[in-house]
Design goal:
The complex is a heterotrimer of chains A (337), B (325) and C (275). Chain A has a domain at 113-185. Helices cover 29% and strands 23% of the residues of chain A. Chain A has helices at residues 61-69, 94-100, 122-133, 138-151, 157-160, 170-182, 200-217, 228-234, 252-257, 262-269, and strands at residues 17-28, 35-46, 50-54, 76-84, 87-88, 105-108, 188-192, 220-225, 237-242, 245-251, 317-321, 324-327. Chain B has 325 residues and is an alpha/beta fold. The radius of gyration of chain C is 22 Å and the shape is elongated. Chain C has helices spanning 2-7, 10-27, 29-32, 64-100, 102-117, 120-131, 135-162, 165-172, 177-213, 225-232, 241-274. With 275 residues, chain C is mostly helical. Chain C has one domain: MetI-like (MetI-like fold, Orthogonal Bundle), CATH 1.10.3720. Classes of the chains: A alpha/beta (337), B alpha/beta (325), C mainly alpha (275). At the A-B interface, α6, α7, α8, α9 and α10 of A face α6, α7 and α9 of B.
Chain lengths: 337, 325, 275
């Protein structure tokens, strides 16, 4: 099924933005100086939109997720703005964040085994999530849990309600995790590699489930993944991150059709596809830079085939199409001086 | 095209299930498979497909319950050191594929030292040569695995596997723990090893795009059995078995114009402890007929060098003749 | 990286420092003890702590400080010896059982389990009643109590390491079972055993003291911490120092060994989770 890509945040009325991240920076103090894990990241998610946050290990995508959820370690220094449904989350107190988490902002993680308590039945865990955020009777909470289990496709929820997590298959456990995320009808779901641990046919079922929930409930979804195949399959817009910064963001069709940042291009070219090409797969030389200390220029420059003198300065985010922004001197007037 | 290097016949591996009763887990059931000299054979399957157990049997790490494996015409016995070193493993990085306390040099040398290959004085030179072959500098020899990146560790693993000059590499999910750009480097390395040194590779993975890119032929496994074998391009262009079709349709493709297919495979992967009767795929199969629930389809020829195990494919041919790959 | 992690652990540093001072004191006991630990002096019966008798004197007028020093020396030898002997038996046993599995594991570990279910002190007392008393018998008795514990820890640790892929690789490279067990499994599995051994050192000191207290360990007139506790108990009110200082010596040593054990444990856990 094809979904019409939703235009970028600027084209949407700001009232329907579920999430608006502006100039988010996260730094940790370390023995080697401040480590800039996330640097000046901006993106927005409209309701009923799936935005993919893509990048390799250490690109900062999970730190962004933790910032939105208010789950950064205490020693992290956060700057910028995260507006959730119009409310500022940077600097919000812990009690407010606790209230939002699991209620209006839900999260789905990679490993369903570790996010479920092995000693409680799956039904009780979902009912507990209901009661943590609303004063309702046990019976009501149980009914809501049963409803949401049915909605995510657990067959015969009444008989599975008292099952401990280990009686369920990996795919069924991930459905339970999604049910727990959905039970309070969140405005936003942060899904961090939700299908990475699952088999291909099960992954497709879970992705279809996420899309159906998005369509039926209008939930905004931030999908964090390293898998460009998953991104192409379900996302409306994509944010590519490299070394803590946004390299490129675009509607999904534009990103795959006209990748404009050299990192995005290299990432797409390094994906295995049909048949061996004579030169083999494109590889990105070098490694991700150390994020400690000052990093003034383009963070990808050292590994970039197109680098020039101007890359010593940080490239501005230039617009190359509707909702398509690229942080590269190549599109901002050339890499030379 | 090429000579058959490995011949697997009737390979079966059952594990006893702990607990009451005499229940058995049918990890690998009656597998016939040929691996041709110099090819990369992809083995693809989901959880419980038996692909890892098949690989461990090829490596002599798991003793089959029944069936035979022969290498170059010789019956494979893990106790025979010459045959044993002819098959070498490459495992997934990140979970102890290298001894964390050993230096790179010592790990790569291990097979040479254990089997007394080459004079002790020449072994160091051979290690340096092996490290260069996998794209690592000799100066990394004194490092320990914790000082290396995931891609470097996987290169060391490959160098160590190549040390005894094996005829076959069995690689089980060797790139699954790596980032895409690093994965590309390792896939290029496997392709180069086959091209330049004629190493035969059995490449076990759940990742269809990796198989499509790298493998010459692909064997698809489902609940312990091979259900389809054929040249990769032919199988990916026109998968014959309904499971292969569903698997390929479900695999995410880096092409946003190809969203999720409207009809997804429903249901769960059956447990290999009590596999369904008849064709193990019948409970999920969209086109199953009555016969599928009772009678197990044999792996039969359905086209040029293509085999599949499905009643609906082979029933059309009268008196199908069993053909081995 | 390995050593820097160890040297940065504050508990470990405190534990090692205390142990260092104590061991040094024990080794140098003949040089630093101000008095003969066995000489009786009726002129200073139950004398309180003073500059010439730092820890006071006991009911026979013996210098408590000198006696604690010499007693500690013996305790330390018994602890180190018993744990060392237990390691010598337990580690190979656990390694073989954990690496081999199957019936080897069953045959080796059944008797070990049988020893483990017996109460430790009772087992020691019955051994002593058969073998006789004395420091070396105490050492053997404690080793008999400890080796099953160490064998168990070694076995489960070896089982975990044996499942790691590099062991399979090694097998495929043609390495023999003995080579794999000693070169791959042993070094990688030893961490938890070392932690356990450090904690058992403190425990050993307690058992030695308990046995001596009961008159089954070190025999008088040789000074022993347990024995001193036993002798001091009659004069606890008039001369508490004769009781407090040997007790403190035991407590501090056990604490130090536990600190070291905890510090090592955290390091071992970090190490294995990083691997």
């Amino acid at each position: 099924m094809m979904t019409e890509p939703i235009p970028g945040p600027d084209a949407t009325a700001s009232g329907s933005l579920a999430l608006d991240v502006r100039g988010l920076s996260v730094a940790y103090a370390s023995a080697r100086g401040a480590v800039s894990a996330v640097d000046d990241v901006s993106f927005a998610v409209a309701s009923a939109e799936v935005v993919g946050l893509v990048g390799e290990s250490g690109c900062g995508k999970s730190t962004v997720a933790a910032s939105i959820l208010g789950l950064l370690p205490h020693r992290a220094q956060m700057r910028g703005s995260i507006r959730f449904d119009g409310e500022e989350l940077v600097g919000a107190d812990a009690e407010r964040m606790r209230h939002l988490r699991g209620n209006r902002i839900a999260t789905i993680v990679q490993d369903p085994t570790s996010s479920l308590d092995p000693t409680f039945s799956i039904g009780e865990q979902i009912a507990e999530t209901v009661r943590a955020h609303a004063t309702v009777s046990r019976a009501t909470a149980k009914q809501r849990a049963l409803d949401v289990l049915a909605e995510v496709g657990i067959p015969d929820p009444r008989s599975r309600y008292d099952d401990p997590p280990h009686r369920l298959s990996g795919g069924m456990r991930q459905r339970v995790v999604i049910a727990a995320a959905l039970v309070n009808d969140p405005t936003l779901i942060i899904a961090d590699e939700p299908t990475t641990a699952l088999d291909v046919t099960i992954q497709a079922q879970i992705l279809a489930l996420l899309l159906r929930l998005r369509d039926e409930r209008g939930t905004a979804i931030v999908l964090i993944t390293h898998d460009l195949g998953v991104v192409a399959t379900v996302c409306d817009r994509v944010v590519t991150m490299y070394a803590g910064q946004v390299a490129e963001q675009a509607p999904v069709l534009a990103l795959f059709a006209h990748p404009s940042h050299p990192y995005t291009t290299a990432l797409l070219d390094s994906m295995p596809s049909a048949g061996q090409r004579p030169g083999g797969l494109q590889v990105i030389a070098g490694t991700v830079p150390d994020l400690a200390g000052a990093l003034p220029g383009c963070r990808f420059a050292a590994r970039c085939a197109h680098r020039g003198p101007r890359c010593e300065a940080r490239p501005p985010l230039a617009t190359v199409g509707e909702g398509h922004d690229v942080a590269c001197w190549l599109v901002a007037g050339g890499v030379g001086l | 095209m090429n000579d058959v290097l490995i011949e697997v016949r009737g390979l079966t591996k059952q594990f006893r299930v702990p607990g009451r009763g005499r229940r058995r887990l049918h990890a690998v059931a009656d597998v016939d498979l040929d691996v041709r000299s110099g090819e990369i054979l992809g083995v693809v399957g989901e959880s419980g497909s038996g692909k890892t157990t098949l690989g461990r049997c090829l490596l002599g790490l798991t003793a089959p319950t029944s069936g035979t494996i022969s290498i170059g015409g010789q019956y494979f016995q893990p106790s025979d050191p010459v045959l044993r070193r002819a098959v070498q493993p490459v495992f997934q990085d990140s979970f102890g594929s290298l001894d964390p306390r050993w230096t790179v040099r010592r790990s790569v040398r291990e097979a040479l030292d254990a089997q007394g290959i080459g004079a002790p004085g020449e072994r160091d030179a051979r290690v340096t040569e092996l490290l260069e072959q996998v794209g690592l500098g000799a100066e990394l020899g004194e490092s320990r695995p914790s000082a290396l990146s995931g891609g470097q560790r996987q290169r060391v693993g490959i160098a160590a596997a190549l040390a005894p000059r094996p005829k076959l590499l069995v690689a089980d999910e060797p790139v699954s723990a790596l980032d895409v750009s690093v994965q590309a480097q390792i896939l290029n390395l496997f392709a180069a090893l086959r091209r330049n040194q004629g190493v035969t590779i059995v490449f076990i993975t759940h990742d269809l795009s990796v198989i499509e890119h790298l493998a010459d032929r692909v064997a698809v496994m489902y609940v312990g059995r091979i259900i389809e074998v054929g040249p990769t391009d032919a199988v990916f262009a026109a998968p014959a078995h309904p499971y292969t079709q569903a698997l390929l349709a479900a695999a995410p493709h880096p092409d946003p114009t190809r969203r999720l297919p409207p009809k997804l495979l429903t249901g769960e992967i059956p447990s290999p402890i009590d596999p369904p009767s008849g064709c193990a795929f019948h409970p999920r199969c969209p086109i199953a007929i009555d016969r599928c629930t009772t009678q197990r389809p044999a792996l039969l020829q359905i086209g040029p060098s293509r085999l599949a195990a499905c009643h609906l494919l082979t029933a059309v041919e009268h008196l199908p003749v069993p053909v081995t790959t | 990286m390995t050593t820097s992690g160890l040297t940065r652990d504050r508990r470990l540093i405190v534990g090692v420092t205390i142990l260092g001072v104590l061991v040094l004191a024990a080794v140098l006991a003949p040089l630093i003890a101000p008095h003969d630990p066995e000489s009786i002096d009726s002129a200073r019966l139950l004398r309180g702590p003073s500059l010439s008798h730092l820890f006071g004197a006991d009911a026979l007028g013996r210098d408590v400080f000198s006696r604690v020093l010499f007693a500690f020396r013996i305790s330390l030898v018994v602890s180190a010896g018993s744990v060392g002997l237990a390691l010598l038996i337990g580690v190979p046993l656990g390694l073989l059982a954990g690496y081999s599995g199957g019936w080897v594991d069953l045959v080796l570990m059944r008797p070990v389990d049988m020893i483990l279910v017996l109460p430790a002190l009772l087992l020691a007392i019955s051994l002593i009643s058969v073998l006789g008393t004395g420091s070396s018998i105490t050492l053997i008795a404690i080793a008999v109590i400890f080796f099953p514990i160490l064998a168990r820890v070694m076995r489960s640790s070896a089982q975990v390491v044996t499942t790691l892929p590099f062991v399979d690789s090694s097998r495929a490279r043609g390495m023999g079972g003995f080579g794999i067990a000693t070169r791959h499994v042993l070094p990688n599995a030893l961490g938890p055993v070392v932690v356990q051994a450090a904690i058992l050192m403190g425990f050993s000191m307690q058992i030695e003291a308990a046995l001596s207290y009961l008159g089954l360990g070190t025999q008088p007139p040789t000074p022993s911490l347990g024995l001193m506790l036993f002798e001091g108990r009659d004069t606890l009110v008039q001369a508490p120092w004769a009781e407090i200082f040997p007790g403190l010596a035991i407590a501090i040593t056990v604490l130090a060994f536990n600190l070291v054990g905890d510090g090592l444990r955290r390091h071992v856990n970090q190490h294995s989770s990083a691997a």
